[in-house]
Amino acid sequence: MVERKKRERLSGKKTQGDWKKRLAESKTATPCIHKKTEREAVLELLCSVFTGGEFLHLALRKLFSEESYFDTRSRAFITRLSRGTLERYIQIDYFLSLYSNTPLRKMKPVLLQVLRLSAYQLLFLDKIPPHAAINEGLNYLKKRKLQGLVPFANAILRKIAQDKEQLLQKLEQEHREDAIGAALPEEIFAFLKRDYGVEETLRIAKSFLSSDAGFYIRNETGEGEKVLGNIMEEERFLSGEVSIQDFSSQEVGRIAHLREGSRVLDCCSAPGGKACHMASRLKGSGMVYARDEKSDKLHYIEENRERLHLENMEIEAWDARKPDSRFAKEEDKLDVVLCDAPCSGLGVIGKKADLRLHFSKEGVKSLQSLQREILSTVQSYVKRGGQLIYSTCTLSREENEENRDFILKSFPFRLETEKKFLPGEPGDGFYYASFIRTEETGQPCKV
After folding, report:
1. CA distances from 356 to 50, 92, 187, 299, 359 (A)
2. Helix (H) / strand (E) containing 188
3. The CA-based dihedral angle spanning residues 200, 202, 207, 209, taken in that order and rounded to the nearest 10 degrees
4. Model-level pTM greater than 0.85?
5. How far apart are CA 333 and CA 315, in angstroms?
6. Which of 14, 284, 428, 443 has a C-alpha 20 to 30 A away from that of 327?
7. Mind telling me the catalytic residues?
8. Are 289 and 326 in contact (CB under 8 A)?
9. Torsion angles phi and psi, residue 308, rounded to 5
10. Tens digits of residue pLDDT in 369-421
């Protein structure tokens, strides 16, 4: 027995003791982590957005939290590819349909996302070599055990690469004034055209596609400034010197009638930019009640409050439709109530490309009903002579001007001022109306 083990060691064969040692080592070894390529990550993002109904900004946040090996350059590239494909998917699908005998709705979701991502790179990103745009998509199909679809996908993508100039020319000549040329779903295009006409709708659509050319911040003096890059890693952001807030939405904090000791309610507050702006203007006095129905969003408000070193804020989960007895008596009512209501978001499609997937006329009507239910409750908190501010980041008449008229018809307010920003003038689309209470308040009104 001893001689056999000796011969096995000399011959290189493994003994039972060797295997036990290796097994023990394997249990303590660091596991091998499969790192996704950038385009693999993008394809998974697109599947989660188009098929799973997830919002892109949330999917990106989750990805970068879980896959921390992506550096700053990779994160920017992933964001650009995923966002760009979403922005242009109407045009991309139109081009794909020209070459595919299979209707896009009948394709496997993975195949469709591969075709969309590759076509986006081929048509709209000049610095990416065609072979890189095509081959990585085909390799992804192979990894997903879909080798049988590779010849089909390859043929379509090679033709698109070959016909690029003719396709873009076709887009310009034949679809200059329609939904395809605007890169918008037909329902959104028709909805905007109803209120703004073709020319203005096309200008709005163009601004949506150029919105990655920077964003706005608000500095400590309350002035807007347009910047590029990842400001969240800069010291002036981390120290609270500046905050990210679009040019148009900064107007809310400026028009609020604030004086020392004012009490303010922001009833739909997350992520808290407007509430923090008003709390900053109060310079430590008074109180800003920052609320949101969804408790999982409160940490965004808290993060902003801590970064800006604000003590005059009370953050709470609260459904704005539910009356609050603390503001029921006349002596307890508030100086300013802000209702920055949940809305269809038509003004911020440039920043949230996936809103293209969620819009419907029925949804707008449902949101109008919700907005009026909230307004009917929170308007009763405003003291006589106090201010009610209603705002949205959408462009629809139903959610803006019709709600303005609803307030004036239903409650004791006069209109002080209103303003609508269209996308690109100079920031996102936005609407606000400021009202002054003209007499003592009653109970919340049922819609």
Report:
1. 11, 14, 9, 27, 6
2. helix 186-209
3. 170
4. yes
5. 18
6. 284
7. 393
8. no
9. -95, 0
10. 999 999 999 999 999 999 999 999 999 999 999 999 999 999 999 999 999 99
